[in-house]
Structures are given as C-alpha cells and as structure tokens.
Specification:
The chain has two domains: about 60 residues; about 40 residues. Helix content is about 90%, strand content about 0%. Keywords: Membrane, Transmembrane, Transmembrane helix.
Length: about 100
C-alpha cells in the first residue's frame, strides 16, 4: 500500500511542478508579447535619432550614446522575439503535451 501511495504523491508533485512551470512560461510569454514590440520601437527610434544627428552634422562624440542604445535595444528585440517563439513552439507544448498553436 505504501508504494502505491508514493506513486500517487509523486504524480501529484510532478503535475503541480508542471503547472508551475506552465504558469511561469505563460507569464514570460505575456510579458514578451508586448515588450518585444516596445523594444523594437525603441531600437528604431534610436536608429532614426542617430541618422538625424548625422544629417545635422553631429560629431562622433555626440553619436556614441544613440548608436549604443540602438545596438542594445536591437539585441533586446531579437531576444524578445526569440524567447516568445521558443516558449510558444517548444516550452508550452512540452509542458501541456499539446501541439503548438
């Protein structure tokens, strides 16, 4: 009888852990759903800012921050889109045992 009870408890614990992981994955996905677009908007904004300053004749010292910000926000954008896709196509289907939507 003890062995059967242990299996049931283990099954419940695994299910609870899978539910926690799924909940965390869905939360991360919800954050990246809008944050990736915000990061893209900021990356484009900083890139346009750099171009405008170049056209206005800005020197190299004045351009380091807009260029650095463009690179940072572009990296955040790429990371956001990749993370969102990975969670949607691999992580959630593995946790829920359903096919990717």
């Amino acid at each position: 009888m003890t062995g059967r009870r242990t299996v049931m408890v283990d099954t419940r614990l695994r299910h609870r852990e899978r539910t926690r992981q799924e909940s965390r994955a869905r939360g991360t996905m919800a954050i990246w759903r809008w944050a990736r677009w915000a990061a893209l908007f900021l990356a484009v904004g900083w890139a346009l800012n750099s171009v405008v300053k170049l056209v206005e004749g800005a020197q190299g010292r004045e351009l380091w921050w807009p260029l650095l910000s463009t690179v940072i926000w572009a990296a955040v954008t790429v990371h956001g889109f990749a993370t969102y896709r990975r969670i949607r196509t691999r992580t959630l289907p593995a946790l829920t045992r359903r096919t990717a939507a």
